[in-house]
Amino acid sequence: MPVADAGTEVLIVGGGPVGLTARALLERWGVRALLVEKHRELSPFPRSRLVNVRSMEIFRRLGTAAGITAVAFAPEYGRIRFRDTLYDRDFATAAMAGVDAPVPESPVIGAVTSQDRLEPLLLAAADAPVRFGSELIDLAEEADGIVALLVDRHSGDKTRVRARYALAADGANSTVRRLLGIGTTGPGALGDFTTVVFDADLDRWCARRPAGVYVTAHGSFLPLYPEGGWAWFAPTPEDPAHADWPGLVSRALGTCAEVRAEVLRVQHWVMNAFVAERFRHGRILLAGDAAHAIPIIGGLGMNAGIADVHNLCWKLAGVLRGWAGPGLLDTYEAERQPVAHRTLRQAVANTQLMLQVQKRRGDRLRTGEAASARIELPWSEAYFAQLGLVLGVAYRSDAVLTDSDTLPEPPDTGTDYVPTTEPGHRMPHLWLAPGSSTLDAFGEWFTLLTPAPAHWEQQATAATPWPLRVATLPHEHIDLCGLRPHGALLIRPDGHIGARWRDRPPGDATLRHTLTAVTRSTAP
What we know:
Layout (H helix, E strand, L loop, with lengths): L2 E2 L5 E4 L3 H12 L4 E5 L12 E2 L1 H10 L2 H7 L7 E4 L9 E4 L15 E2 L2 H9 L6 E3 L1 E9 L2 E8 L5 E6 L1 E4 L6 H6 L3 E16 L3 H4 L6 E4 L2 E7 L2 E8 L9 H9 L8 E15 L3 E2 L2 E3 L5 E2 L7 H21 L8 H37 L14 H5 L1 H4 L40 E3 L2 E2 L8 E5 L2 H9 L6 E5 L15 E4 L5 E5 L8 H9 L6
Parallel strand pairs: 1-11, 2-3, 2-12, 3-8, 5-14, 12-19, 23-24
Antiparallel strand pairs: 4-7, 5-6, 9-10, 10-11, 13-16, 13-17, 14-15, 15-16, 17-20, 18-19, 21-22, 23-25, 25-26
Helix pairs in contact: 1-4, 1-8, 8-9
């Protein structure tokens, strides 16, 4: 059996948005990656719909944000509308803050777009090799790496691939997770659903009141592309093999619609809700749906997976390049697993609230109240934005040096985001110059952000072997960042604050000692 060992450092299993993002991030670090995907091509189904502001910040750094925006819907589609049928008036509506309009907390705006438009852009963001139609069927760990057994789904030929690490982004039904025997916690399968992709002229009911999702009593309708196309998803009916899908969609649209749907594709899927018990097994790491399956309400799942690999890839690069110790990889689970549990709780709460809206509407109609009466939503528009969860995640691990002023975690609401420079948090967006955000200063390096770069120059020069750049913080932002004139923030490559010195460093080797601790390094 052939053995492929062309210097692959990371084997990525799964070619969805999470695996493709990991491939692009690792290439930016100079890490040699190979991505394998069991399907013969990128998914033709729309699937995930929402790219939130945090993911767009990551894509901005990868150079793909503008391309994503170009094929996405206009911002006014960043809204959800509730109707009895698609042709009825709204009885409730909610904006997706950070998507329907810019927010001051970020230099970018999120987007409503279909996964089949997103994936080609992510594929083009890197040159690392990709093998479509190559399925992983076995995986073993060795002393200095992993060995994967792959089968070509066209020819049946088998190949072994060696790599230093494996990153499993192979979905909720992850083969890698199953092979490793990693269990899950949470509700599990919530139900069987079907997505029907179809064409129909629905402009008369939707063009003047655009939305990314129309929730009705007969399933949800989603516009797919700015130029046209629709999807309908609902619980899978009995005997789906013999279902009249055009008829089901047309009836779901409503008898008064007098529209016949031209069905193009049908996909059955299971809505899962769980978090893996472990995100790491030696040299094998889980990310995305392989690590946590999140119900779709709120658009949190794919975005959580993108944040996973943004957290993980710089750590893999550090270990592979020698400026971080292997123990740094332990902080991946320590940081991202609590976020996964919090995200799952939020998605379940979103689902319950949306069901509450529909129940209120049903109760009102049954009691004979006016059909035109609007429903007061059981959440604020800030709630549906969930910026506290999207932008306000705080990591607590050995890769973060907390200071004596670090405050306890805020209530776990997912709603409110209060910018802070406390260690562990995402560095807030501040304008350094016209068109240049603090977030633009971060990349494949640590960033020392300080109003006094000359004061830190000697320590920064001595901070080898770590990749480090010094960036100047304008003095008008000193108070916002909680610093004094000689203070500094150490920003990790993922944009989270690794350490903070409110004033001058306590010693000549402070920066070096901090980098050693944050990266679990054994460097002398």
